[in-house]
Amino acid sequence: MKVFAVIVAYNSPLDLMELIKALTNQTYKINKLIVLDNSTETKGQNEEVVLNSTLNIEYVDMKGNCGSAKGFSKGMQMAYCQGADYIWLLDQDGIPYNDCLEQLAANISKAEIVCPIVLDQEMNEQGFFRMRISIFGKFYYVCSKSKDFFIDSFGTNGVLISRKVLGVIGFYDYIHFFVGGEDIEYSLRAKKYGFTIFVVNNAKIVHPNLEHKHSLNLNQWKRHARKLGINRLLPNNFGHIKNDVKNNNGIICFTYIMGKYFSWYQIIYYFIFLFIVLLMKKITNKEIHALNTLSANITGFGMGLKERKLTNSNQRFKM
């Protein structure tokens, strides 16, 4: 089985060096590493890190920051064209356990896409896959810590994807996404075409707290949004209705995915909830730009709905 790893590098040669070291120490060896360099400040240093490695590495200068979506999309395409059976996508600041790939590879018969558990730097589990619920004040994990399980959506860091998936649905969507959201869209696209996603408890990867990682560069987002012709609908920034997104670009990404993949029941429920929350915040005099928030939601939803109507829209992300 030929496994190609793909990393999108951005201005952090030390992170890249540590990750390459971790890949060198894997008990299940990769056949090739593809490094897509989005750096704007440390390009020469990243290339030096690559040259000093003993791994089989192909280095690609992306000529500026093209975003993680385009970087991973190109890396996936290169790996696919070069005959990879599986593509292992990795964030540059994540460090897989030495047996991470071995544990993932041992479970490829169970699903076309397999994922590791993500730990923070204090070795605490990050709850992206194993959500918690509160029952009378006591928290319980929705998914067992002792059993592997299927999920609907994965995060890029450490996911192992079968060549079969790429052959059917293509690569990451870099047309509508820049940094963040492309992995969720790809997950739902894979699910739409009948592929499954499986989390392996014994496969682990260490990743820093994502709060800082996903604080988006608004100017980069604006430039990307301008290419889509929606810059006039993008005021500087405002909170999502749950205050978990720092600017409206995140809202547009979310509602684009919703318009493209969610059921009409889910869509109606969401917009009813949105109107109620905006109204309540307005009544309680909480600072919120209601019209801007609403326009961002409608913009993203409209773009997603248009994609839903297009037949074989995934072809644009293929060769």
Q: What is the CATH C-level name of the largest domain?
A: Alpha Beta
Which superfamily, in CATH terms, is the homologous superfamily of the largest domain?
Answer: Spore Coat Polysaccharide Biosynthesis Protein SpsA, Chain A
Query: Uncertain spans, ≥5 residues at pLDDT below 50?
Result: 214-246
Structural class: alpha/beta
Radius of gyration: 20 Å
Q: Which architecture of the largest domain would the CATH scheme give at its second level?
A: Alpha-Beta Complex
CATH fold title of the largest domain: Spore Coat Polysaccharide Biosynthesis Protein SpsA, Chain A
Question: Quaternary status of these chains?
Answer: single chain
Helix amount, in percent? Answer: 40-55%
Q: What string, H for helix and E for strand, traces the elements in order?
A: EHEHEHEEHEEEEEHHEHHHHH
Number of domains: 2
How many strand segments? 11
**Largest sheet descriptor:** 9 strands, mixed
